[in-house]
Amino acid sequence: MNRRGFFKGSIIILLGLILLANNFQILPWGVWYELMRLWPVILIAVGTHLIFRKSSLSFLQIFPSLIVIAAIGGAIYLSQFAQFGGNYQKVDQMFRFEQPLSPDLTRASISISFGAGRLSLEGGSTHFFDGDLVTPSWLRPKMRYKVIDREVLLELTEEGGRDGFRFRPSGKDHSWDLRLNNEIPLALTIKTGASSNYLDLSFLKVTYLELDTGASNSEIKFADSVSIRAKIHAGASVIKLLIPQTIGTRIKADPPLTSSNLMELGFRKEKDVYTSKNYPTAETRVDLDLDVGVSSLSVELY
């Protein structure tokens, strides 16, 4: 049997098995992303082939194929395990994450990308971050975490197949319950699909919030301990804001709001800007830019 032919055939069979595992949700589609990241292995394999192709030791000629097979195995490993970072446990379709709190952190930037379902975020974690992430069988959460100059960069996303061919809606089987540390100043960027979003920032030091959501139901509770700059972009949505009475509030709506209770709460309106009476003198403030289309906005002072 020709050894080179055997190993080349093995590579083709292995790639076919990966595609089959993708179709049955045994492996995530992210394995192909990891393979693309490992593309320099092709150059290594070609170089090895050029070196050993005329070697009298025939077993050396299979090195290029072995290198490619090892790269495929590495991509499978990375797509299954290396993507998670931190500590996690998997129970059925729930992933439980814990990211320890690094010493001397001064700030954190957190990016969250979530599809259709229920997203809940609050403070109270004794870690930097922990959460319970329930996903449908075709999705898998993905976390990236790194520290640069005492600032944390955390990214939470998800990947999977089926895209437009899901036979069950994302409801109870798709929910993220996230908890963050109360002591670290935070910048949050959140992007969701058609979802229910519950963001309790009342015990967190969130100084920047950007929420980009589809046709959704969103409730956001602000803190009175820090000033915050916020942006909300939403489709046809129901939005409820819970704002401390002691905090000054300025809301700019473009396009104009179709439904809100701001005037009933004593806000002053000038063109497309609503301002609370205490905004000029308040020690902490909410500055909010709204781009919410045909949406209902309600504000509750607490």
Written overview of the protein:
This protein is α/β, with parallel strands linked by helices. It folds into two domains: 3-82, no CATH class; 89-301. Helix content is 21%, strand content 40%. It is built from four helices and 19 strands. The chain has a ten-stranded mixed sheet, with no helix packed on it. Strand 16 (268-270) and strand 17 (273-275) form a beta hairpin. Helix 1 runs parallel beside helix 4 (63-82), helix 2 (30-37) crosses helix 4 (63-82) and helix 3 (40-52) packs antiparallel against helix 4 (63-82). The chain is elongated, with a radius of gyration of 25 Å. Residues 82-86 and 161-171 have low confidence and may be disordered.
Strand content: 35-45%
What do the pLDDT scores average to?
83
Please report the distance between the alpha carbons of the first and last residues. Answer: 79 Å
Count of distinct structural domains: 2
Structural class: alpha/beta
User: How big is the Rg?
Assistant: 25 Å
Q: What's the overall geometry? A: elongated
Largest sheet: 10 strands, mixed
Q: Outline the low-pLDDT stretches.
A: 82-86, 161-171
Tell me roughly what share of residues is in helical segments. Answer: 10-25%
Total number of beta strands: 19
N-to-C series of helices and strands:
HHHHEEEEEEEEEEEEEEEEEEE
How many distinct helices?
4
